[in-house]
Amino acid sequence: MDALADQHDQDQDPRPLRGEPLSLDLLNTRWHDEQLFHQPRGLAIWLASNGLTGRAPDTPETLDALLRARAALLALRIDPRDAGPLNEVLAHGRIRRTVGPDGLPHDEPDVADPVWLPAWLAADDYLRLLARDPARIRECRHEHCILSFFDTSQNGRRRWCDMARCGNRAKAARHYAQQKQ
Length: 181
Prior knowledge:
This protein is an alpha+beta fold. About 45% of the residues lie in helices and about 15% in strands.
């Protein structure tokens, strides 16, 4: 796929929250009553949005691997000790350390089957977020939102996936409730 088509797919991404780390971006392929992967070209859109077009095939097998990774991440939300499904995804690859032409160390993903590359990268990304600060992996506090984000705010108090959408809705609902009293 050429760069123009790749940019078109990125522009067609209908999700309300994009740009989160890869693992959370995978979780955010479902929102409200919608799922990106149920839409036409949903997998191609997600691959393009994450710079994976051409690195992984747009096939049902790739989608199946991603859905397994997403289910594993969701299982960890329910029970952080339920690591088996995520470890199964991680078993499809590893990090290969090399010294690059610049003389510096480089970590390269080594995934034998390219259909597993996006799922493995998402699982590996989640491990990086856990190592960085697990408390900053959050779910939006709006009662009708299921989106996830990594809190990069200085004080670590971000509560909403997006202040303009969920934060304002929550504030408006509180204001309306106060006015009714």
